Automatic annotation (TrEMBL):
Protein name in UniProt: OmpA/MotB domain protein
One GO CC annotation: cell outer membrane
Superkingdom of origin organism: Bacteria
Entry keyword annotation includes Transcription: no
Annotated signal peptide: 1-19
OmpA-like domain residues: 391-509, 549-665
Location of this chain's protein in the cell: Cell outer membrane
Length: 665
């Protein structure tokens, strides 16, 4: 028994190896025919195959039609009878699919279609809407030209990178592989040659870039092959698109002395499809499939499928989904999720991704996928949630993060803080309740307090972003409201479902409080020196002081005299004071501040006392004339507030004075 164990292990390993390597197998008569089948493109999920069929009687223009697009679906493991994809993609010209996006709703098509129904050299994009492919729209590639009779394209799954097989003045001979980068919706950069490691003096064509955006398969007549065109593999080594591993022939499992090209694989990296003339029907080009050997497999990726749902109604919503690679915020991507097919998107390994649906009138819920340690191909289904910007919407926010057991923001909290601050700024009539939730601490009262303090920290941040405090209510729910939702939640590692902030919209009709104007004089209280008395702007909101009154006060300032070193008012000053009495009698809202002042001659304390007595003497005279004591205030300042220099007799004379100032409550 012990002697046979090594042999059994060897046999088992050999069988596993044989099973893994697989033998190329024709897709059969539902796809292949005695006519030429070429340019296969497999959808990332592996269930739809697009290809071109040449001079087939069922082509758009019959057997004289050089090439049409056909499609077949995999059903229960078998390929359906291929059908002509029809107009508007097929016409009397050579038609072909170069690539299809992960969601299956966007296709890169050979030829530059124009509005007159003609085609030019180039490529076009077609979108599927309502189950129908739309008329292709020509893309513009800067400084594009091709000196060759043949051309191939491949649009990478990220929809930002375009590979071309063309011949230009910069080619090393015949067709070379080039790369172009997306500028905007319709425009692409000038193609750049991939360099001598990839391109030879002979034709290189049929480029295919795997889902990892690094692994390149292409056909060549120039690298070491077995006869006709062979398929090769190379790996991109950096972001320059000039450094590649040495191209490696896929070997005799794929390549023969006959023609092999147009290698395409699904997102899993397991299943490959290609064109060969070996063993084909009537010696034509046919499409074969096989299991991709491990040594040639691309890096694993995540194929994320799903839909966007209005969490309030449960209905599907068409929205854009924004994906951000947090390792490099320049590598942002966006895809459309429609109500018919949802969305599909490929995420490469090695990064932490954040993403959320975006649509006018809605708020999306932020999600995360950590692929830093992705070791095998994954497919995930996810329902992405949005909530309408409407009263009653309660938006769970898990990624306003805090230091453990504290109300201090973590560094990764500010993306969400700024997103919701922007939401409030963009909706100036929105009023919200900010509710904190946590179960981090052992006691309920402690969680109540911590959750409140966290909610307050969020409100304080919004206030710093110029959100009016009256728009923000604060509540601490502690651990009382457990998180519950029918949406899928993908949180950043280390974040608990119960630790969150809820933004609840409580009003969309908030109005900023009008500034208070108690006396209704058009001057708000905060800027009104007399908020309870109607006044004028020229007097800071206080009642207007007439020019006649100002003249009386000026005359009193200059004309009131006292006996020498005394508080006795000289008789000639009394008529002037009587004019002040008249002003006070005619203006019952007036109050009068009487200030006594001296020069700097003599003792400081004596001067202060004298100024006070003179102010009081003036006040007493006015009281004796019937002016109420509550309307009068008398203060002595001594020599502390001179209005002229005390170095001259003239200046000292002006400093010895009694001032009268009209004041209001």
């Amino acid at each position: 028994m012990l002697k046979t164990l090594p042999f059994l292990l060897f046999l088992l390993a050999t069988q596993i190896s044989w099973a893994q390597q697989d033998v190329p197998k024709s897709l059969g008569s539902t796809v292949n025919s005695s006519y030429q089948e070429t340019k296969p493109v497999i959808s990332p999920d592996g269930n739809t195959l697009f290809f071109a069929r040449q001079n087939y009687p069922e082509n758009y223009a019959g057997s004289n039609d050089p090439q049409d697009i056909y499609v077949s679906e995999k059903r229960n493991g078998a390929w359906s009878q291929a059908r002509n994809i029809g107009e508007p993609l097929n016409d009397k010209y050579p038609n072909g699919v170069s690539s299809v996006t992960p969601d299956g709703n966007t296709m890169l098509i050979l030829n530059a279609y124009n509005e007159y129904g003609d085609v030019l050299d180039g490529a076009s994009i077609s979108h599927r809407k309502g189950g129908r492919w739309q008329y292709p729209q020509m893309i513009n590639i800067q400084e594009f030209y091709n000196l060759n009779d043949y051309i191939d394209y491949y649009l990478a799954n990220n929809e930002r990178t375009l590979l071309l097989a063309i011949e230009t003045e910069e080619s090393f001979g015949d067709q070379d592989l080039y790369v172009s980068f997306r500028i905007d919706e319709r425009n692409w950069s000038k193609p750049v040659n991939l360099g001598r490691q990839i391109n030879s003096a002979a034709p290189e064509f049929s480029p295919f870039l795997a889902a990892d955006n690094k692994t390149l398969f292409f056909a060549s007549y120039g690298h070491n092959g077995y006869g006709d065109a062979d398929i090769f593999y190379s790996k991109r080594l950096d972001d320059s698109w000039q450094n590649w591993s040495k191209p490696e022939n896929l070997g005799t499992d794929v390549n023969t002395k006959e023609f092999e090209a147009y290698y395409t694989i699904d997102a899993s990296g397991e299943n490959a499809y290609f064109v060969t003339t070996k063993g084909s029907i009537a010696g034509s080009k046919d499409i074969y499939e096989m299991t991709l050997p491990y040594k040639f497999r691309p890096d694993p990726v995540l194929l994320l499928n799903g839909e966007v749902v209005d969490l309030a109604s449960g209905n599907r919503v068409e929205a854009e989904i924004e994906f951000v690679n947090t390792n490099n915020y320049d590598k942002n991507e966006a895809v459309i999720s429609n109500t018919e097919n949802g969305f599909s998107h490929i995420l490469e390994k090695g990064a932490l991704y954040q993403y959320l649906p975006v649509k006018r009138g809605y708020v999306g819920i932020l999600q995360f996928q950590d692929l830093t340690r992705l070791s095998e191909y994954l497919e995930k289904e996810q329902k992405l949630a949005m909530l309408p910007i409407a009263v009653g919407s309660e938006i769970p926010v898990h990624h306003i993060t805090f230091v453990n057991n504290a109300d201090i923001f973590r560094s990764d909290a500010y993306y969400e803080l700024d997103r919701f601050a922007s939401l409030l700024q963009s909706n100036p009539q929105m009023q919200v309740e900010i509710i904190g939730h946590t179960a981090q601490l052992p006691l309920e009262a402690e969680n109540d307090r911590l959750s409140y303090n966290r909610a307050k920290a969020v409100a304080d941040y919004f206030e710093k972003k110029n959100v009016h405090p009256d728009r923000l209510r604060i509540k601490g729910a502690g651990q009382k409201l457990a998180f519950s939702s029918n949406m899928d939640v993908a949180l950043k590692n280390g974040i608990e479902l119960e630790d969150r902030i809820t933004i609840k919209i409580i009003s969309m009709n908030w109005e900023k409080p009008k500034p208070k104007d108690t006396d209704e004089d058009g001057i708000i209280d905060i800027e009104d020196d007399c908020p309870t008395l109607a006044g004028v702007a020229d007097n800071n909101g206080c009642p207007e002081i007439t020019e006649e009154t100002k003249e009386v006060l000026k005359e009193a300032l200059e004309g009131i005299e006292f006996e020498l070193a005394s508080d006795v008012i000289r008789a000639q000053s009394l008529p002037i004071l009587d004019k002040v009495v008249t002003v006070m009698q005619e203006n019952p809202d007036y109050k009068l501040k009487i200030s006594g002042h001296t020069d700097n001659q003599g003792d400081d304390d004596a001067n202060l006392l004298l100024s006070h007595k003179r102010a009081q003497a003036t006040k007493k005279y006015l009281m004796d004339q019937g002016i109420a004591i509550l309307r009068l205030d008398a203060v002595g300042y001594g020599e502390m507030q001179p209005i002229e220099s005390n170095d001259t007799a003239e200046g000292r004379a002006k400093n010895r004075r009694v001032e009268f100032e009209i004041v209001f409550d």
